[in-house]
């Protein structure tokens, strides 16, 4: 019984290195890019600036709540209530998670054929919001350690690290996608089999994800960037049959992993 539990245990590594990559890569590869970039100014406004505003407001209100009205928790050993407080670091980490929204339900209610602009904005905002929240959480976790004091300089460090992490993750995805596109363009023997092409494209995306995680960047942002750029550049170097096969295969893998 214990051995069966060990085998069936859903570990963190299984989620981040097996289940998550197909989902993120499929979302980027099968994204309706024309509508996404056409309304990118609105998506960036809500997804980036809106996430920062939510993070700031949530952090301020949560801090005020614990400052003016400390919460109580029950201690079963003593049978009494004790004051429950959160440190500033814990508040920031909590709020960086709270500002992440799930748009799956909203997207499922919108018909792309009838409301293409609204669908693209909601879907794009959801992806951007998740990306910003992940980078924000990693940045806060890194620069607000338990041994460090939170000062005014910490705010600038968090902002600089956020920008550095975001740009580096996107850059890693760009390198992986452009390398894949160049290989498919110059090595035409790779395009003789749809199976080989599909596997080749996904391996380059997964390779970028692994390198990003290896250098402590955001692998999710890298993989999403890789999927979007591969669909825009590498897709045109695929054989006609593989152009359909890759979209269907990645969509199926992503749906199965989800």
From TrEMBL:
Protein's UniProt keywords contain Membrane: yes
Subcellular location: Membrane
Gene Ontology BP term (one): regulation of intracellular pH
GO MF terms held by the record: potassium:proton antiporter activity; sodium:proton antiporter activity
Organism superkingdom: Eukaryota
Keyword Transport appears in the UniProt entry: yes
A single GO cellular-component term on record: plasma membrane
Annotated ranges, domain Cation/H+ exchanger transmembrane: 13-246
InterPro entries named in the record: Cation/H_exchanger_CPA1, Cation/H_exchanger_TM, NaH_exchanger
Main location: membrane
Name of the protein in its database record: Cation/H+ exchanger transmembrane domain-containing protein
